[in-house]
Design goal:
It is a single chain. This protein folds into two domains: 9-216 and 339-402, 3-Layer(aba) Sandwich (Rossmann fold); 245-249 and 254-325, 2-Layer Sandwich (formyl-coa transferase, domain 3). It is 37% helix and 15% strand. It has 17 helices and 13 strands. It has helices spanning 18-28, 64-67, 83-94, 115-121, 146-152, 177-200, 210-216, 219-228, 262-272, 276-279, 286-291, 293-304, 309-318, 329-332, 336-340, 382-388, 394-402, and strands spanning 9-12, 32-37, 52-54, 61-63, 74-77, 98-101, 126-131, 204-209, 245-249, 254-258, 323-325, 344-349, 353-358. A hairpin with a 4-residue loop joins β9 and β10.
Length: 407
């Protein structure tokens, strides 16, 4: 084991995306992550396909969705509804630093696997609960899913084209972004709690909720509302506070301009052959451009359509104007910058062969992230984990397997 968190053991009782995303980040940073799954079924996302990655031997496959968030983990298949399965989890808790879970509120209490029960076994335990709506409040007992939270948390009210435009209406983000960001906030909370424990010896309960995270991540749009009392609306690819900051047509497609200040706007005008726009009082400052975007944007569109995307990117990049193409995913993973930054990885697996992975964006110079193991097959490490950590003999493990407590 290597990495800045190689001294830690994470017991991951979570599934789907937010929890597994958090534990994968911790695993990439070197922590030992033991993923507890249901025998015969496993994490729900194992069946969320197609597409699937077919094993090299043709006998096994894993869904692309499961591959997203489960590298650097060991799979331990335990039936936690069985008293002996619960006792196995407690044995592992006694030897772990962190427990991650995303069951419904109170869902683990019936098994004696809630925080209040487990801290009696391990007072230094960091126990992280990820829920849809939080552990308290009027919605606490509701199940929460990313799509639902994007709607309830306001993100869909500001994503998509306006109602009066073709294709107008609320739109979710193209990936489960609320789940992912909740996983990142959970990771931050766990690391903060570990830092506190290092100084005091105290464990604690960490909590993150999808709705809380979604509201927090409304960022400037939330503050636009709180400072004015006026709810922002959908603006397509336009920005509420910056102009021009959106997509523009080219001779062969589209490109994005992200002009962040007046100096960049002046350079854009020069590159477009319309230096006079930069001195026009309607467009000279960002405040003026926001107020007069209806006059400015059509002018820009008439200019950008005269060259190809590649030509504009070369011209504007050399002029110091932030811009870029609207890439498809095949273009993303063929981009020289993406490749140079190690965002496309592969990990070898004895049965699955070479498993493609998206790289971790954290760059640590002295203790870099590592890609040690591919996402596991269900129960792949049950025998080794129970023998090494829980101290069970091979005969005991086989007996548990024969009785369906583990697989």
């Amino acid at each position: 084991m290597s990495g800045p968190l190689s001294h830690l053991r994470i017991l991951d009782l979570s599934r789907i995306l937010a929890g597994p995303w958090a534990s994968q980040v911790l695993g990439d940073l070197g922590a030992e992550v033991i993923k507890v799954e249901r025998p015969g079924i496993g994490d729900d996302t194992r069946s969320w396909g197609p597409p699937y990655l077919q094993g090299a031997n043709g006998n096994n496959d894993l869904s692309a969705y499961f591959l997203t968030a489960n590298r650097n983990k060991q799979s331990l298949a335990i039936d936690i509804t069985h008293p002996e399965g619960q006792e196995l989890v407690r044995k592992l808790v006694a030897e772990s630093d962190v427990v991650l879970e995303n069951f419904k509120v109170g869902g683990l209490k019936r098994y004696g696997l809630d925080y209040d029960s487990l801290k009696q076994i391990n007072p230094k335990l960091i126990y992280c609960s990820i829920t849809g709506f939080g552990l308290d409040g009027p919605y606490a007992n509701r199940p929460g899913y990313d799509f639902l939270i994007q709607a309830m948390g306001g993100l869909m009210s500001i994503t998509g084209h306006p109602d009066d435009e073709p294709g107008g209406g609320p739109m979710k983000v193209g990936v489960a972004l609320t789940d992912i960001i909740t996983g990142l906030y959970a990771t931050i909370g766990v690391l903060a709690a570990l830092s506190h424990r290092d100084r005091t010896g105290e464990g604690q309960h960490v909590e993150t909720a999808l709705l809380d995270v979604q509201v927090a991540c409304l960022a400037n749009q939330a503050m636009n509302y709180l400072t004015t009392g006026k709810a922002p609306t959908r603006m397509g690819n336009s920005h509420p506070n910056i102009v021009p900051y959106q997509d523009f047509p080219t001779a062969d497609g589209n490109m994005v301009l992200t002009v962040g200040n007046d100096q960049q706007f002046a350079r854009l005008c020069k590159a477009l052959g319309h230096e006079d726009w930069a001195s026009d009082e309607r467009f000279a400052t960002n405040r003026a451009r926001v107020a007069n975007r209806r006059e400015l944007i059509p002018r820009l569109r008439q200019a950008t359509v005269m060259r190809s995307t590649r030509e504009w990117v070369e011209i504007l990049d050399s002029s110091g104007v932030p811009c870029g193409p609207v890439n498809t995913l095949d273009e993303v993973f063929d981009d020289p910058q993406v490749l140079a930054r190690g965002m496309k990885q592969t990990i070898a697996h004895p049965e699955l062969g070479e498993v493609p992975m998206v790289g971790n964006p954290i760059k640590l110079k002295l203790t870099p992230v590592t890609y040690r193991t591919a996402p596991p097959l269900l129960g792949e490490q049950s025998t080794s984990v129970l023998g090494r950590i829980a101290g069970l003999s091979q005969a005991q493990i086989q007996d548990l397997r024969d009785r369906g407590v583990i697989s």
